[in-house]
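Thread: quick sanity check before group meeting

JM: Hey all, I'm pulling together slides for Thursday and realized we never actually wrote out the predicted structure for the chain we discussed last week. Dropping the sequence here so it's in one place. If anyone has concerns about the input, flag it before I start.
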Amino acid sequence: MSETPKTLRELIVLGDAYLRGRAVPDARTVCELLAARLFNCGRLELYRYLDAVPQTRVVDALRRGLRRVADGEPVQYVLGRWEFRDLTLKVDRRALIPRPETEQLVDLVLASRQISQTPKPLVVDVGTGSGCIILSLARALRDGVFVGLDVSVEALALARENATLTGLAERVLFAESEGCGEFDPASVDVLVSNPPYIPSQTVDGLERHIRDHEPRLALDGGPDGLRVYRALLLDAVMVLKAGGGVFFEIGDDQGPALRTLLEEHGFSEVAIHRDYAGRDRFAVGVLND
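JM (edit): ok, ran it. Output follows.
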């Protein structure tokens, strides 16, 4: 006896129940995102198709996606793309998934005087991953020199794919590097980074969709989570211009430590900014003359 064809509305209800049974957060939203991807529309446009009976191949694809999410894979990787600011980026296991908090980091850079008072700023993104930060800055700014660095060859390949996808391949240079010490002294206007900042002993306790799927290299910040910041600041004091700025995304308990590190390395106007959830999330500072 063949299965009775179901409308998309019914399939979403069933998928929601399946994912909730597997303790997947935001199960309904996940189902709608998967369905929207298969119908090649925005999630908010799904209402136009809710009473349609999808073709068998679409139903099968939806089921495969639901199984992957139920097994712990991030829905962003299942979709293969994700929105960041006004960019649609390719996402996969080669780099961290771009997150809304990091959009705020871009906003802080764009609002800085290092950008507004410099006709053609040199902006360097260390640990570029998917390229979301540096590509967003290149999209937003008419003039500038934009460089994305990463130690991961795989992440750099993804970033270059995203540069091509967004039409920014001619405006952003990507290169393999552990830091930014290879730039000329006092040449960089902005150093921005969302580095690994989770203490090593904490990584294994992360939620499985993060721990088992996103690259550990982009998560593990060493014993206290501050290893990469220390290395970056050693480079920053050499390559930043006087008055140049650093803009870091940080762990929500790292504000005091980052303030101390920045001040110890000769930065002034040090500020710890909160994310939309009210947690400490960003550290900024200006290199003294």
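AS: nice. The chain is about 40% helix and 20% strand. The CA atoms of residues 5 and 55 lie 9 Å apart.
JM: adding both to the slides.
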